[in-house]
Amino acid sequence: MNSFAYIALIAWIPISVALFALMSPRRAALASLAVGWLALPVLEIPLPGLPDLDKPAAVSYGLILGVLLFDPKALLRFQPRLPDLAMLAWLLSAAVTSVINDAGLRDAFAQVWSSGVDWGIPYLIGRLYLNSREGIRDLLWTLFLSGLVYAPFALFEVRMSPQLHRIFYGEAQHVFAQTIRGGGFRPMVFMRHGLELALWLAGATVAGACLWRSAGPRRIAGIPIGYFVAMLAGTVLLCKSTGATLLCLVSLALLSPTFARWPRRALVLMVPAFLVMRIAFNGVVEPAVVELTEMISADRAQSIAYRFANEEVLLRSLWDHPLFGVGKQNFVNSVNPWTGDVRTAIPDSLWIITVVTSGLIGLVGMQAIAWLPAARAVTARAGRPEVIGAGLVLLMMVIDNLVNAMRPAMFIAIAGGLACVSHAQQTATAPTSTGRRAAARGRLLRPRSPQRADG
Known about the structure:
The chain has a domain at 137-256. The strands form four sheets. A two-stranded antiparallel sheet has the order 1-2. Strands 3-4 form a two-stranded antiparallel ribbon. It is mainly α. Strand 3 (180-181) and strand 4 (184-185) form a beta hairpin. Helix 7 packs across helix 10 (225-238). It contains 19 helices and eight strands. The chain is globular, with a radius of gyration of 22 Å. The protein starts with a helix and ends in a 10-residue tail after the last helix.
């Protein structure tokens, strides 16, 4: 990494604080979440006695300092609610895991600090500023506009290969071979992986489609929003991430008011069903999945089989400490089924990393942080389009992390906001039973007339 990368990462903290001096707290927080995550380098700076300073830490430190210096009353108004127990369980499980695995109190403090920085602060920002209809709308606009700004950079790397991180910061952030997909390139820009970029742009596409449907500004620079949504959807496709593309298409379909809540409920229930099947009935469905994938691509089938082999070894180690896991320092070795080489298992999925290192308590806490708010928003009766859209964006991250490990701070902030959106803010006035279906068809075929956005 060049010196500019170190300067950018360190300087972001005072820059983020300055945003709170120049803007309203809510918009400063959203700007910091978006710009910091999209522009900062993928870099770790060692700090004595503390976890390394990386992108998530720089974003979180800037946010909490901005709140403390320019909006401390927001913290004083904060009142813990029942959904916050999931975050508490997640943070405490990290400490208990270190203690019972003899890692010491220092490691326990480091794990709680790290989890608080990565998860706790973005969640708190969502609880403070995004727990209203106006906050959710501002969030959707921020996500949508950030996708529009980022899309040209992604398209550049689709054509020229992922080079922007190397050009600006002196070094590529990931193995170049993994960016070659389908006869072209998978862009990364300044994110950790192309999968994370695809997830962000998929979320921006869903946010834009939700704004296009809901009451509010219908044009950007005189151009209908629908054109921008189509452009973003095309960019997601070019990112060559099958998972993000499918999640984007399904979420766009579920935004339609003609869909009953049952399809959304099925998508929500898929998460616990998958986790129970993998943990309690490991080895039952995996061979069928490999055979099905082999019909599509032999390379993908080999990759999935190798992933399942690693996860099977890790799940066996879980039962030594099922409630709180074996800790990050005790990840077991696995055997490559093709070469026989023994190496440390490197799982790809956030759920398997969490359940092995933090146990079932940690997994339930981590999953509940995002899954419960998403389920509440997506399945609400007569839910507002903005809240349903934000819930679908959050649910995309939850489902994606069943196979990957991407958790942008913006998405965690969505969880904090949706966790405590009041029922009155979450739901719209329902039409009469005789006119509900007709009204739904009308909203699908003809978007609402333009109105000035609140906030």
